[in-house]
Amino acid sequence: SSPSAALPQRGGTGRGGRGSVKLSAKVFKKALAFRASTLEEVAGILPTGEPVVATVKVDGELEVWDVDVAAGVAQVFNQNERERIVRPVQRELLLALQKAGHQRARGAGELYAVDRQGKPLPRNEVMSHVKARTKATTPVADQQALRLAIFDLFELDGTILWQRAPYADRFVALQAIFGGGTFVRAVAGRTDVKGADPIRALWRRHVLEENFEGLVLRTNGAVKVKPLHTVDLAVIAIQQGKGQHRDTTGSLVLAFRDWTGRFLEAGHVGSGLTVRDRDWWWRTPKRIPGGCGKGAAARATTFGEPGPVVEVEAESFNQKQVR
């Protein structure tokens, strides 16, 4: 039987198309409702004796893709309904669906970029690629590093699958259609994972060796399993907040010193700060190299020493030179 044999049969849904599954990337992202976890917590959240679908988590821009083979059209949209023009990706979407004998499909994926070894780039570099190289005027030669990792199937040949077919069945269908491409490929994973040991094996291969963001475990809900780092970072500036925090601290600008003695900015952190925390930081600008408010991060580059050191817990850090 075909990989789609276990999927719901078409009936009463009308012709497949954008109007038949009204699911934008923004709505889909909210519907995912992933719960975060760490590898150490995995054993405590797995259902006893029941298989779990474990897939690779790619750190890119969430997209909804729509392919119509008869019309020769493949489109990719982000959560703001902005179309991403990536010709190698669009061409492979069409060819893969055509080769598998299907006419129409819609689903979700992550648009990301890879280095020369084929490993995923850090998120800040991924977003630079996505924003700068997905325009109608972008030469195909400049899009060779972009990839679309497909992880869900909403609709196939007029059959609505979203919230109707089990994810395991949708995943098997994705592997059959998009299992061997260069620019488009279904995320790696397994549908028969039982216990923590197979998850640790997937973690070693895909997260530690291949540099992917983490794993997604699907049982009754979905759980993201991602690495967690704790580091000590210097506060070099305080950015003013917006909205309800407009008269106090919005975020702390952080940095660390590399092996040459240079300070490298490690991004901003604002979540986790209490009202009291925000007020305390806002009232102590003399202790911060860049001070507070607009232009604080830029002023930090003129100081020779960093400010107070804080302990930060995060999934990853983006680095750029401050001085």
How would you summarize the topology of this molecule?
Layout: H1 25-32, E1 35-37, H2 42-45, E2 52-57, E3 61-68, E4 73-78, H3 87-99, E5 104-113, H4 123-132, E6 146-156, E7 159-160, H5 167-178, E8 184-186, E9 189-193, H6 196-209, E10 214-218, E11 222-225, E12 229-240, E13 249-257, E14 263-269, H7 275-282, H8 296-300, E15 309-314, E16 320-321
Quick one: overall form?
Answer: globular
Structural class, from secondary structure content? alpha+beta
Task: Note the beta-strand portion.
Answer: 25-35%
Helix content: 10-25%
What is the first-to-last residue Cα distance?
A: 62 Å
The string of secondary-structure elements, in order, is: HEHEEEHEHEEHEEHEEEEEHHEE
| DSSP, total strands | 16
Instruction: Extract low-pLDDT stretches.
Output: 1-7, 9-22, 299-304, 319-323
Q: Radius of gyration, Cα only, in angstroms?
A: 22 Å
Major beta-sheet overview: 6 strands, mixed
The number of helical runs is 8
**Averaged pLDDT, please?**
78
Notes on the structure:
- With 323 residues, the protein is an alpha+beta fold.
- 23% of the residues lie in helices and 31% in strands.
- It is built from 8 helices and 16 strands.
- It has helices at residues 25-32, 42-45, 87-99, 123-132, 167-178, 196-209, 275-282, 296-300; strands spanning 35-37, 52-57, 61-68, 73-78, 104-113, 146-156, 159-160, 184-186, 189-193, 214-218, 222-225, 229-240, 249-257, 263-269, 309-314, 320-321.
- A hairpin with an 8-residue loop joins β12 and β13 (249-257).
- The longest helix is centred in the middle third of the chain and has 14 residues, at 196-209.
- The relative contact order is 0.15.
- Mean pLDDT is 78; it is low at 1-7, 9-22, 299-304 and 319-323.
